[in-house]
Design brief:
Elements lengths: L2 H17 L1 H10 L5 H13 L5 H9 L12 H15 L15 H15 L8 E5 L8 H10 L3 E5 L5 H18 L4 E5 L12 E2 L5 E2 L1 E3 L5 E5 L9 E2 L5 E3 L1 E4 L5 H4 L5 E4 L4 E8 L3 E9 L3 E3 L4 E2 L12 H13 L2 E4 L5 H13 L6 E6 L2 H5 L1 H8 L5 E6 H8 L4 H14 L4 E4 L4 H6 L4 H9 L5 E4 L5 H15 L3 E2 L2 E2 L5 H10 L1
Parallel strand pairs: 1-2, 1-20, 2-3, 3-16, 7-10, 16-17, 17-18, 18-19, 19-20
Antiparallel strand pairs: 4-5, 6-14, 7-13, 8-9, 11-12, 11-15, 12-13, 21-22
């Protein structure tokens, strides 16, 4: 591609942004003042990524000019400078007069750091470490003391388990350690959201045992019913005809109304995969397509990636807990959201109790939330102190494990364009936390987590070791990169090689 043609192609994108900037201006009017440049840049990024940039990348790199591939946080400024340099290479002077106030590279970093500081800390730099507290944190203050000593700066309390008395004991221990150490440990509380899970299963066997599971294999039929039941196992006639299908109920029977023929239903983190083959007002019948496990137990999670669910993201239990959460935590995690309207609903409930200070983290854990992420971010920016969590567990089940790397990168890019901090979550150093031994793959995964502003570890017997290891990984990797950009610090291997060749 000639320089002239390259200039024309870049200019098309530049002019498209200018043409559509009125929309960006409208968006910025509705957000918090501190997010106005961020909202504008996010919109510019959406325009940029509507173009196929692959050919431009290579040709710009060939000329030693910014390739646009790492300019998420400062889109318009980058395009302007690229065009200016392209004109100079052709012996032309180019000064375009535009009225777009925009963030440059340094300003974009400052905005991201400010928004991160607002949500997490003002004094510390780098990727923060969040840890999900186990039940023993309510009775063992030494556990919290050791976690803080090794680098935990955000303590996560999962409100899906336990009660206020139990959580209050955790909070008391956190406060005690804060006072002892002088460390600024923040508290993050996760609202549970609607629990899409299997109901209790209690099957009485001929031998007098009671099983809390049903057995399923590929090709089997499973009926989900609204009727109260503790489960039924398939019964065959002498001719192998099914007399009774395997049947279970679910904790939220209303999902049966939303399921459609051909919808996928995944159980237990995708270990059992099924498809809807028939439906009545009371039941849906599934055919088992994959069974990596043959037992489906009580209270196992369900994912419905193709189904539009008419469920509120905020259940009444969450609403009732909001005063306690806002009084005792610095950050609340918002589970199960899918649309901008879900964000509005949470904000409305927070307004009712007069809360303006608690940070809000939007958990992206389903396909619909990912697909709506840009609109969710614009809505989220109407409140101060916001962040995004990449909840890779449920998200991977919904979108497919083969896509999770691609999708987590897209979430990182969109949030960087909006200058919004990201929490990298699910299975980080999980083997180390559970067994005391890290796999090579999970260490590599942990090193990639420095592209986020915070990393979350889940509980396990060796969680203190996991925090220490993660802190060491982050410390080393942060000297090499900022987000996805190489920092290009001096390399010892290069210095040694040069010294040997002199």
């Amino acid at each position: 591609m000639t320089i002239k043609k390259l200039t024309e192609e870049v200019k098309k994108i530049y002019e498209e942004i200018i043409k559509k900037n009125a929309v960006a201006n409208d968006l910025t009017e509705s957000v918090q003042k501190q997010y106005r440049l961020s909202a504008q840049n996010l919109y510019h990024y959406l325009v940029l990524r509507s173009f196929d940039l692959r050919k431009l990348h290579d040709n710009l790199s060939e000329l030693g000019i910014s390739s646009i591939r790492s300019a998420e946080g400062y889109v318009f400024s980058n395009l302007y400078n690229v065009l200016k340099i392209l004109h100079l290479l052709q012996g032309e002077k180019w000064e375009d007069v535009h009225e777009i106030k925009t963030a440059g590279y340094k300003k974009s970093l400052k905005l991201l750091r400010k928004h991160t500081n607002d949500l997490f800390y003002e004094s510390e730099k780098g990727t923060e470490i969040m840890v999900t507290l186990p039940d023993q944190a309510a009775t063992d203050v030494n556990l919290i003391r050791n976690l803080v000593k090794e680098g935990m700066r955000i303590a996560r309390i999962n409100l899906s388990h336990g009660d206020i008395d139990h959580w209050q004991k955790m909070l008391d221990n956190i406060r005690l350690v804060r006072e002892e150490t002088g460390k600024r440990v923040k508290v993050y509380m996760d609202l549970s959201g609607p629990r899409i899970r299997t109901s209790e299963i209690l099957l009485h066997t001929k031998k007098g045992k009671v099983n809390d599971f049903v057995r399923l294999n590929i090709g089997d039929r499973l009926v989900l019913t609204k009727k109260p039941t503790t489960g039924k196992q398939t019964i065959y006639s002498d001719k192998d005809n099914i007399v009774q299908s395997t049947e279970i109920s679910v904790l939220l029977p209303q999902i049966i109304d939303d399921l459609k023929i051909e919808d996928n239903v995944y159980f237990d983190d995708g270990m059992i995969k099924a498809k809807v083959i028939s439906k009545t007002p009371e039941n849906v019948e599934l055919k088992i397509r994959k069974a990596y496990k043959t037992k489906l137990s009580s209270n196992k999670g369900m994912n419905l990636p193709n189904t539009h669910l008419n469920l509120p993201s905020l259940i009444q239990r969450d609403i009732d807990l909001l005063p306690f959460v806002c009084e005792n935590s610095d950050i609340l995690g918002y589970s199960f959201l899918r649309t901008p309207e879900d964000v509005r609903n949470l904000y409305a409930e927070l307004d009712k109790i007069g809360d303006k200070k608690t940070g809000v983290v939007l958990k992206i854990e389903n396909q619909e939330a990912f697909e709506n992420l840009p609109l969710i971010l614009f809505e989220a920016m109407k409140r101060k102190k916001i962040g995004v969590m990449i909840a890779r567990g449920d998200l991977a089940v919904e979108i497919g494990f083969e896509r999770i790397s691609e999708v987590q990168n897209e979430i990182l890019w969109l949030c960087e364009a909006a200058h919004i901090p990201v929490i990298w979550a699910t299975q980080v150093l999980e083997n180390l936390a559970k067994t005391g031994v890290a796999t090579r793959a999970e260490v590599t995964d942990a090193s990639f987590s420095v592209h986020a502003e915070c990393v979350m570890l889940n509980k396990g017997p060796y969680i203190v070791d996991a925090v220490k290891t993660l802190k060491d990984i982050i410390k080393k990797m942060r000297t090499h990169s900022v987000k996805k950009k190489s920092a290009l610090r001096a390399l010892k291997v290069a210095k040694k090689a040069l010294a040997r060749m002199e």
